[in-house]
Each structure stands twice: as structure tokens, then as C-alpha cells.
Design goal:
Elements (H helix, E strand, L loop, with lengths): L3 H21 L6 H18 L9 H15 L4 H16 L4 H22 L8
Length: about 130
């Protein structure tokens, strides 16, 4: 059986690929959702390394993930805010390919830093 870390890494990887695919296909309304989900799964993987499992408490998981990532990776605060801010904008105004491109760029920077600091690989295979 795969560990929690491995499951979250795999989920982050697949959601990242899905976000990239949807961006390439011009389906901008879903890019923000998938990018956030990729980053959330990466956060879950990193937190699981410390024995923390936000997903076990769904009502508070979102807020706790944001607090945790900003505390552990303060340099990513702007990118994290951009990702979560774009979620609604792309969901309701998803015709904006430029905003979707910014979201992809933020997702990639966040995952790059997570990989650099943790040694986990969220971006392999592409």
C-alpha cells in the first residue's frame, strides 16, 4: 500500500498535468481549480512528512493549508495568493487566457520550490 505522502505526490502530479492539458486546450475556466488542487495535494504531501494531515478535517483543511504553507514558505505567499485569487476569476471569467497563464506560472513556481526544499517530485513525467 502506498503511503499518504506517495498518494498526495501522485495526486499533485496528475492534477498538475490536467491543469497543463486544459490550458493547452484553451479550457481556461478549469485551470485555476486544477492548479489549486495540484498545489493543495503537494501541500498535503509535504505536511504528511511532518505527520500532519489536513484532509482529515475537511471543514478547516483549506484555511489550515494556507496558514501552514505561508508559515513554512513565506516567499511563496504572493504566488499562493495569486492562485487562490484566480480561482474565482477564472471560474466566472474563464475566457481570460492571460490570467490562466499566470496561474500556471504560479503553480509551477510553487511546485518548483516545494521540490527544491523537500526532494519530492511533483513534476516528473512532463
Amino acid at each position: 500500500m502506498a503511503s499518504d505522502v506517495e498518494l498526495h505526490v501522485r495526486a499533485a502530479h496528475e492534477k498538475r498535468l490536467a491543469a497543463l492539458d486544459e490550458f493547452e486546450k484553451g479550457r481556461f475556466m478549469v485551470v485555476g481549480d486544477l492548479a489549486i488542487k495540484a498545489v493543495e495535494q503537494a501541500i498535503e504531501a509535504l505536511a504528511a512528512l511532518e505527520g500532519i494531515h489536513f484532509h482529515l478535517h475537511p471543514r478547516s483543511a483549506h484555511a489550515r493549508r494556507l496558514y501552514w504553507v505561508k508559515e513554512k514558505f513565506p516567499q511563496l505567499s504572493g504566488d499562493v495568493d495569486e492562485l487562490w485569487g484566480a480561482y474565482g476569476a477564472l471560474g466566472y471569467e474563464g475566457i481570460d487566457g492571460e490570467r490562466a497563464k499566470k496561474v500556471i506560472e504560479c503553480m509551477e513556481r510553487v511546485l518548483d520550490e516545494f521540490e527544491r526544499r523537500s526532494g519530492l517530485k511533483f513534476k516528473e513525467g512532463r
